[in-house]
Structure formats: C-alpha cells, structure tokens
Amino acid sequence: MTKIAIDTPLEAYAVRLGDDALVLGHRLSEWSSNAPFLEEDLALSNVALDFLGRARMFYSYAAELRKDQTTEDYYAYQRDCREYTNLLIYELPRGDFAFTMARQFMVDVFNLEFLTRLQKSSDASLAAIAGKAVKESTYHLRRSSDWMLRLGGGTEESQRRLQDAVNELWGFTPEMFSMDELESGLLAEEIAVDRAVLADSWDSQVRSILTTAGVSIPDSSWQVDGGRRGLHTEHLGHLLSELQFLQRAYPGLEW
Amino acid sequence: MAAPQTIALMPAEQYAVETARRESAHAQIWDVLDSVKDPEIPVLSIWELGILRGVKMEGEEVVVIITPTYSGCPAMDAIAEDVSSALTAAGYTRNRIEMQWAPAWSTSWMSPEGRDKLRNYGIAPPGEQALCCPHCNSDEVELVSEFGSTACKALYRCQSCLEPFDYFKNL
Predict the structure, then answer these.
(1) Which of A128, A131, A140 is closest to A51 using CA atoms?
(2) What is the number of other CB atoms lying within 10 angstroms of the CB of residue B91?
(3) Which of A72, A78, A87, B168 could form a disulfide with B126 if both were Cys (CB 3.0 to 4.6 A apart)?
(4) What number of C-beta contacts closer than 8 Å exist between A and B?
(5) In this structure, is the dihedral angle defined by the CA atoms of residues A224, A46, A38 and A29, taken in order, positive or negative?
(6) Do A56 and B144 touch (CB under 8 A)?
(7) d(CA B76, CA B53)
(8) Chain A neighbors of B145, CB-CB under 8 A
(9) Residue A141 pLDDT greater than 90, yes or no
(10) How far is B88 from chain A (nearest CA, A)?
C-alpha cells in the first residue's frame, strides 16, 4: 500500500489520540495470560479492549475525514515509528505489575480530565467518542487508584516496586500537558482540549493518592518529550514489529 | 406517613427510541430484529439490551442503527453479522448497519423484561437499589473482580450460598 500524507490538522489530531490509545492498549494486552492472577488477567485484558476500541473510533473518524479509500487499519498497520505520534509514556515497556499500574493510574487521572473536556469539543464526532470513552476511564481510574493504595500499603517489596515505577515514569508525565502548534490551532476553533490547564488538577490528584500510598514524589527536574514529533524511545519499534508483523508480511490479510 | 415512593423515569433517549419504534412504519423489521440476541448473553435481544437504536429505509435499503456497549466490545462485529443475516433471511436482502456513538449507551436503557431475564440467567442486573445474588437473593455479596468474563460485567461471590456470579455493571 502506498503511503498517504495526513491532510488536515483535524485528521492529525484524531490520529494522535488514536495512537495514544492503540499503543497503550497493546501494552496492556501483553498481560493477557501473564498477569499475576486470573482476575487481574481479565481486568487488564478488558481495559486493553477499551483502549483498542478507543483507537478504532479515533482512526475510523480520521479515515472518514479523508474521503478516500483509507481505513482505520492503515493508521495501525502501515505507518512506521516516526509516523506514530503517541506520547512517550504510552510506549514504555509494561515493566512489572507495579509499573503497569502506576502508568495506568497517571494516565487515567489525565484521561478523565481530558475526555471530560473533549466532550464539549465543537467537533461533534470527537465529542461523541469522548462521551463514550469517559465512562470507561472513570471505571479504570477507580481500579488503578485502588491499586496504588494496595501496592503502596502492601509489603516492603510492593512498596519499593511502586516507588521505582513512579520515579521512572515521572519525567514522562509533563508531555501530557504540552501543547504544540497543531493543538493550539485546533483549540482556537474549540475543537481541541487545552492540555496545559489540566496540569494543576492532575498534579494535586496524583500527589494526594501517591502520598496516601506512602510514595514520595520524585524531583521534577528531568523531563522528556518528542512523541508528537515522531521522536520515540527505542521501545516503540519493537512494539510495532509485533503489532504490525502479520499485515507487513501478508498485506491485506483477513481472518 | 410514609415517604412518597420515587418512580424512576425512563431516560429521555430511551423514551425517544421506544416512541420511534411504536410509531415506526417498519414494525415488521423491528420484529425481525427481536430475534437477534447478544452473543455473550443469549437470553437478551439487542432491543432488550438497549443497543438497537433505530431502523430506517433509504430507498430499497434497510438501515439499522446500533450502538456498542463498551467501545472495544468484541461482540459488535458478530452482532452486525447476525442483524444482517436475520434481515436477509426475512427477505430484506439489501441492508446496512450504521454504528452510532452518541448518546453513549447506558445500562439505564435496558428494559425491565431484560433485567428479569438477566437475573433468571444468573447475572445480577445493573442499577438495582441493592446488589443481590441472582441465585438466592441474598444481599450478602462481595466483589471478587472489577472485571468478569466480558467488559460489561464484574465478578461477585455470594456469602450466603457461596456461588460466584456475574454482575452487569452500571454504566
């Protein structure tokens, strides 16, 4: 299949939100049959499904905007690393269970705030997708907050693993609140959400739960970004090689 | 004097859909669709579950509007195929499914008959005042897992009869 160029800022916005959801959904799906116990296996697989569903909605909408033959599958299977525009926090390897849940907690707090505002987007399709997804994120956050408290208040080992996870993730969180030219332009049309204003509320919610869990908040001097410009960690390529293998080897294959 | 009893009103979106069905010129098509069940919960039709949102004709083509329960619900493709084959079997060979995201599906759209069927099937229905075991009706129940066999259910255990059961989550 030939490469396509993303046409409009709106398409690019839908694609980046789709990328965020797909990459996290894939990371969560890696726990299927590998979770520490059966209930958690079911839970992580179901949360993964919610994110895959979200990615499909965003990609389908992006494809629909093009009015050509492009489908949702193009965005998922035919683009290389540098064309993926997900935030870096989503592509980090799943790590141990504490790492997966700490990341989930941080992005759930963010997503709930973000989607609540996206529901008021002047773009009716984005608003509808957000309306669907926000209900799921409410449920995800309840579960991931609960895990922060259980891991933090668990054993010495679970406490240490959670603290390590938070330390490692912390520098990846500011990228969630970073606005670029594309999103600022769409914000002026009331299509996009202003990420920058979500930072304070996120910070206080995350600090409150983590402090209760006995986790100390890391020094915030180190931070990194680049995902929106296609500059990724080494991990995304490995993820895509697994995600895309079948469609790369047998283009257009269907079950 | 006892406090006046609160009567739950049907959500506006559901009232609109039920009115549309009642006043529809395509009653036979709606009736055909009553035979389509949710593949994960075969006692419930897509109408009783609240995911069938509309039927319209575009020229010769039947257009059926459905909405997913959860955005990643893997049953949606199977449901779309079942809708299409039920219509084809009934002679409506030209048919198409339209997926609708807004308003987002809510368990409050599930019909009272649907709730009874769920309970009889062994699944505790959503949105009841007190969550009770569908087997022995005890309210001494405990949460085992926030997610059950599908995204729309959580797993509980009854502390009276000790049976595990699914709870259809409120959404």
Answers:
(1) A140
(2) 8
(3) B168
(4) 70
(5) negative
(6) no
(7) 14
(8) 39-40, 42-43
(9) yes
(10) 23
Tell me the three state secondary structure of residue B97.
strand
Is the Cβ pair B72, A135 closer than 8 Å? no
State the helix-helix crossing angle for A38-66 and A9-29, rounded to 10 degrees. Answer: 160
Q: How far apart are CA A193 and CA A180, in angstroms?
A: 12
- Closest residue in A to B149 (Cα) is A42
Which among A22, A46, A54 is the top mutation candidate for probing chain B, defined by the most B β-carbons within 10 Å of its own β-carbon?
Answer: A46
Give the burial class of A56: count Cβ atoms within 10 A of its Cβ; 0-12 exposed, 13-18 middle, 19 or more buried. Answer: buried
Q: How far is CA B63 from the centre of its chain?
A: 20
Q: What is the pLDDT of residues A95-115, one digit of tens each?
A: 999 999 999 999 999 999 999
B144 CB neighbours in chain A (<8 A) are 39
Cα separation values, B150 from A176, B29, B43, B70, Å: 30, 29, 16, 10
Nearest CA in chain A to B101: A128
Closest CA to A174 of A248, A226, A241: A226
Is A54 close to B72, i.e. CB distance below 8 A?
yes
Q: Is A20 on the interface with B (CB under 8 A)?
A: no
> ipTM of this predicted complex?
0.75
Angle subtended at Cα A35 by Cα A29 and Cα A40, rounded to the nearest 5 degrees: 90
pTM: 0.88
> Closest residue of B to A58, CA-based?
B71
Q: What is the pLDDT of residue B170?
A: 85
Place of tokens 């540098």: A82
